[in-house]
Structure formats: C-alpha cells, structure tokens
Amino acid sequence: MIDFILDGESISLIQSEGFQLSRQSNYRDTSIQEMDDVLAKMQDGKHWKNAVEETFAESNPWLHSIITHPSRSKFLEEHPPTPDDLVLDIGAGWGQTALPLARTNRVCALEPTPERLGFIQAAAQQEKVEKNLYFLGADYLDVDFKTRFDLILSIGVLEWVGAFRNDSSAKETQRIFLAKIRRELNKSGRLVIGIENRLGLKYLRGCRDDHTGKVDISCYQQDLANKLFQEATGRELRCLTYSMSEYQNMLLAAGFSSIKFHAAFPDYKLPQVILPANGCNTVNNFFKSGQFIAEHDGCDGQEIPEQEKLKSLYLSLAEIGIAHYFAPSFFIECS
Predict the structure, then answer these.
(1) Which of 118, 178, 206, 315 has a Cα at 20 to 30 A from 151?
(2) pLDDT > 70 in the chain, percent
(3) What pLDDT is stored for residue 47 in this prediction?
(4) What is the H or E stretch that residue 85 is in?
C-alpha cells in the first residue's frame, strides 16, 4: 500500500489502483490527439509497441525510439534493485522504466500528465504487470508521501521541475525537490538521477541544448545562461542543468552523503555505454583505447556532424585525465 496526503486529503493506494489529480501545466512531448490515437489503437487490441510505432515511427522517429528502445532501462539492468525494494518513479513518462521494473518490483508510477498515465496503465495490463504497479497522477511536489521508498527514480525530471512552477526560483525548486526525495527515502534507500551535463563536450562545440533547443546558452553558468536566454526568447530560463561538481554540491546540500556518477554515452536517454566517473580513469581509458560512441542531437536524435573532431577532443581530454567531466550526460546514484 502507498500512503500519501494530497490537497489535504489522506489517500491510500493498493496495488493496481490509480489516482489522478488534474493539472493544467504538464510536460508533453506529443499532442493530446496523438496520445488519444495511441490509446484507441491499444483499446482495439494492438500491442502498445505496435500502436506507438504506427503513430510515431515516421512522423517522430526520435520519440518512437525513446519510448520503445530497450536501452532506456539499461542502467537499472546493470544496477538493479533487490526484488523486495519498493520503487517510486517520478515523472514516469511512457513507463519506459516503470514497466520493466514492475516485472520484479512493486513500483509507484507518478506521472502528472493524464494521458501518459493512462498509457502506462493500459500498457501494464498488456504486459500483465499491473498488479505490481500503483498509478498516481500528480506533481511530486504536491504529494506528501507517508510511505518510504527503497529506490526513487528521477530520470529526465530534475532539470524540468522549475519549469512548471513559479512559487520559487527554478534552482530553489530543484533544491526543494531533492530535499523532499531525501526525506522520502528509507534510511538505506537510493536515488537515481538521469540528466544531461551542461559541460557536455557536444554542447561546448555548439550542439543544441536538449530542453531549450538553443545553442551556446545552457552550457554557461546560470546568471549568464539566463541573460542569454532572456535576450533570445524574452523568457526566464527555468530548465536548468549543471556540471558534475555542481550536481555534487546540490546533492550534498540536500542531505546525500554517497554520490556516484556514471557517464552515459551517447546520453542517458538511449545509453549504449555506461561508465563509472567518480574520479577514476574508466572514462579516460575508454577514449585512450580508441573507443568512441557517435553522439546525437538530443532534440531530434540526428547524428551531429564532425564526429572525428569530437573523438579527437575526447582523446585529448582523456590524455590529461579529465574526459569524464565532459560526458554528455550522467546517471547519478545517491544515498
């Protein structure tokens, strides 16, 4: 059972049960009509992967890959929870992590966008894992969990938490988010974050930021990045990513004492190679051995140009022992 307070009401969810609180300002990566089309195909008996393929394979191949590619859950396959662990998946999206985890664990899929939560529920029924899932439609910061979790996932979420709330600065909202997670983990619990590195080498070379679609803005420190973003768009930059050391400091301030970085290539969304990056030489040795993973634009999945130059720069950074600081994204384990 999952116990929590929402809008002053005490609520308990049993396994396979759902609760949806409507909110207007939610993240969406496709239209409501396209989501309705996918759900209609599933209701007609199509498997969810086939319904997603028919809807997006040609019109939005990047989204199709992000939803269906098995590498989405690669990190947790390599660093799995124990079968008794209770998992909270914050911003569960299309269920890319919650669904495979539900084969072995009880998982609370928290997803504020109603149609995406409906998709997870329908896909869970097709995969016959709904009995291991709780479905909660709400913003994480609005939910006061009484239940404590063994594993909390924030995959592609931390950077966005300030973008849909205006009650504090974006950075302060991220601080509140991390401190809340720390309180709602069991004493021996673990947080896993998947997120981009603002100092990723591809961004320094002019690749678009995955969240704003802009070049040469998000890689700078916050004050300058916000100034440049306001000049370009007239809006405040509220989707924030950080460097390795900045993430470290944020997490320490939130109360975590053990923080392990893993460099994800080409990114955490569709990782092919995941390497330890806590001051060891694993990432540097990877490049010094001649290995390289072609990188892509995180906005559309298209391979970025001049890969040989990128490879050469990684090798130069590896030779002086600092390539891991410039990985495109990280998985971060915190306890």
Answers:
(1) 118
(2) 99
(3) 97
(4) none
> Under 8 Å CB-to-CB from 53, ≥6 apart: which residues?
64, 68
Four-CA torsion 182, 183, 189, 194, nearest 10 degrees? -30
pLDDT reported for residue 280: 82
Residue 23 — pLDDT band, cuts 50, 70, 90? low
Backbone angles phi, psi at 168, to 5 degrees: -160, 175
Examine the pLDDT at 28 and tell me if it is beyond 90. Answer: no
The DSSP output letter for 320 is: T
pTM above 0.90, yes or no: yes
CA distances from 10 to 22, 47, 97, 176, 182 (A): 17, 36, 27, 22, 21
CA distance 262 to 108: 25
**DSSP structure class, residue 146:** -
Buried b (16+ CB within 10 A) or exposed e, 144-181: ebebebbbbbbbbbbbbbbbbbeeeebeebbbbbbebb
- CB–CB of 92/157 below 8 Å? no
